[in-house]
């Protein structure tokens, strides 16, 4: 009897010790991440809740907020400029990501095969990511200038007898911004995809080669499934960032021509800082938040279904 009790005490003591140790580790971990949690709450959650509350008010910064209910949402939804900005935002996001994923994978495959460059070329491709959007946008303004831009000079040398107005033509302004944004972001996402390509097991590729699979078949049967999670991460991350596009349009076109490059963030900026209508700007911000959540969930489900 005494032996059984001693055994029970012996076996239960380490368990209690482990529980206490885990509890202490959990408390220590919570203390370590508390500053990060506090920063997230202060910089993200509190402004989000404040924007949601102010979206139901009439607030012009110069007078106290006044409750107006859903009036701001009705005003925004009845404004044709909002729907045009929504279309521009979604078309920019899908256009950049769909083209960008293909180009990024292609460039990463070239670097993975060591067809050209190496570390120096990878650095050159990545350099635009180190520059701010303002610097890149100003540089592309010069490149696309119809009078002195080198791109128009090259087109003239190829036989184009009139300058192309990339940023003042409503049919070319958004594609030009998409190309500029793709050039700026390509290096960052290419490095991520390249790291995934270099982690693909060589045994799988060699087995496919032994089965007679060509380069295209090996890519779709072996390489792409192996990096599908990374490609999904790149697509979702890139897409969420593209939905918040503002700087490129602000610097390069000012939202024009004829609202052809005005996005939801640009419209929100106009309402808040030009018209001083904080309530309407917050309503646009809330609807943009809902759009980002819905589209990101749909994109994630689509990519997961495609992967399966």
TrEMBL record:
Q: What's an example GO cellular component term for this entry? A: plasma membrane
Q: What is its main location?
A: membrane
Instruction: Read off the SUPFAM superfamilies from this record.
Output: MetI-like
**Topology class, membrane:** Multi-pass membrane protein
Record has Membrane as a keyword: yes
The portions of this protein that span the membrane are 31-56, 90-111, 123-143, 172-197, 218-240, 278-303
Which family would the database say this protein is a member of? Belongs to the binding-protein-dependent transport system permease family.
Query: What protein is this chain from?
Result: Carbohydrate ABC transporter membrane protein 1, CUT1 family
Species per Swiss-Prot/TrEMBL record: Ruania alba
């Amino acid at each position: 009897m005494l032996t059984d009790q001693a055994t029970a005490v012996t076996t239960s003591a380490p368990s209690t010790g482990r529980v206490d140790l885990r509890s202490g580790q959990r408390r220590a971990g919570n203390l370590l991440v508390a500053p990060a949690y506090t920063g997230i709450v202060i910089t993200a959650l509190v402004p989000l809740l404040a924007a949601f509350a102010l979206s139901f008010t009439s607030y012009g910064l110069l007078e106290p907020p006044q409750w107006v209910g859903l009036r701001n949402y009705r005003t925004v939804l009845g404004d044709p400029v909002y729907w045009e900005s929504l279309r521009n935002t979604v078309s920019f996001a899908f256009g950049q990501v769909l083209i960008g994923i293909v180009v990024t994978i292609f460039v990463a495959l070239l670097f993975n095969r060591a067809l050209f460059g190496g570390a120096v070329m990878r650095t050159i491709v990545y350099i635009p990511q180190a520059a701010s959007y303002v610097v890149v946008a100003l540089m592309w303004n010069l490149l696309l200038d119809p009078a002195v831009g080198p791109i128009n000079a090259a087109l003239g040398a190829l036989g184009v007898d009139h300058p192309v107005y990339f940023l003042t033509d409503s049919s070319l302004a958004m594609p030009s911004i998409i190309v500029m944004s793709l050039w700026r972001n390509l290096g960052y996402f290419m490095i991520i995809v390249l790291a995934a390509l270099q982690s693909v097991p060589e045994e799988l590729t060699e087995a496919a080669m032994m089965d007679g699979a060509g380069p295209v078949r090996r890519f779709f049967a072996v390489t792409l499934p192996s990096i599908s999670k990374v490609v999904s991460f790149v697509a979702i991350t890139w897409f969420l960032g593209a939905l918040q596009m503002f700087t490129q349009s602000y610097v390069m076109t000012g939202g024009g021509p004829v609202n052809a490059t005005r996005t939801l963030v640009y419209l929100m900026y106009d309402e808040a800082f030009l018209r001083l209508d904080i309530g309407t700007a917050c309503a646009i911000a809330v609807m943009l938040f809902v759009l980002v959540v819905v589209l990101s969930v749909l994109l994630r489900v689509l990519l997961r279904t495609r992967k399966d």
